């Protein structure tokens, strides 16, 4: 029995060493530091279901440990959606300026009721899990087309990089009861 436990421990240790040899761990950020979002802007605060939103951000981490961007959504009438993560290219560890893109169409909803209100929250995390300040944007679905707002000077430069795509699929609370069933009786 002792031989089989010893052999199992040896094999487990060798497997762990073999699987972890190709892994690279990220450097830990220094204690007491965190990224800071210095500017943020959303392309529009109202739009039709399926419109593409762009969220512009500029952030700094003088120590150079920015790692990923979290975007979460709260929807009136539904609740909170889990955060979607966009991992930053290593060249943006110290300073980042660019935009996130979100196509508001969802495979979970054929439509979205007019006046559905969203709260979009964006923050940046460093390699140690320290969170930056959070920026918050309101958004409301409407039936008419809404043009994008003019970009402020810091974001109106040409060729700002697309940092990543937001992958949050919204639910229409009126369609959640099953086929031909809504929240409200007919």
Chart the SSEs and their pairings:
Layout: H1 2-20, E1 36-42, E2 46-47, E3 52-60, E4 66-75, E5 79-87, E6 95-103, E7 117-126, E8 135-141, E9 162-165
Parallel strand pairs: 2-8, 6-9
Antiparallel strand pairs: 1-3, 3-6, 4-5, 4-7, 7-8
Salient structural properties:
186 residues; single chain; five-stranded mixed sheet; disordered C terminus; 1 helix; Immunoglobulin-like; four-stranded mixed sheet; globular
What does this structure look like?
This protein has 186 residues and is mainly β. It has one domain (36-171): Sandwich (Immunoglobulin-like). The chain is built from one helix and nine strands. The longest helix is centred in the N-terminal third of the chain and has 19 residues, at 2-20. It is globular, with a radius of gyration of 22 Å. The protein starts with a helix and ends in a 21-residue tail after the last strand.
């Amino acid at each position: 029995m002792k031989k089989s436990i010893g052999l199992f421990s040896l094999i487990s240790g060798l497997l762990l060493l073999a699987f972890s040899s190709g892994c690279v761990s990220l450097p830990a950020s220094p204690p007491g530091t965190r990224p800071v979002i210095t500017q943020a802007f959303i392309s529009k605060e109202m739009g039709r279901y399926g419109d593409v939103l762009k969220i512009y951000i500029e952030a700094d981490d003088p120590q150079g440990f920015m790692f990923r961007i979290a975007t979460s959504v709260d929807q009136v009438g539904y609740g909170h959606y889990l955060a979607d993560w966009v991992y930053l290219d290593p060249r943006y560890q110290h300073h980042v300026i660019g935009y996130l893109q979100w196509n508001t169409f969802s495979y979970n909803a054929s439509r979205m009721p007019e006046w559905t209100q969203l709260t979009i929250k964006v923050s940046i995390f460093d390699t140690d899990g320290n969170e930056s300040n959070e920026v918050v944007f309101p958004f409301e679905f409407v039936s008419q087309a809404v043009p994008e707002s003019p970009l402020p000077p810091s974001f109106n430069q040409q060729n700002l990089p697309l940092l990543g795509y937001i992958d949050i699929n919204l639910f229409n609370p009126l369609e959640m009861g099953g086929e031909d069933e809504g929240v409200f009786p007919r």
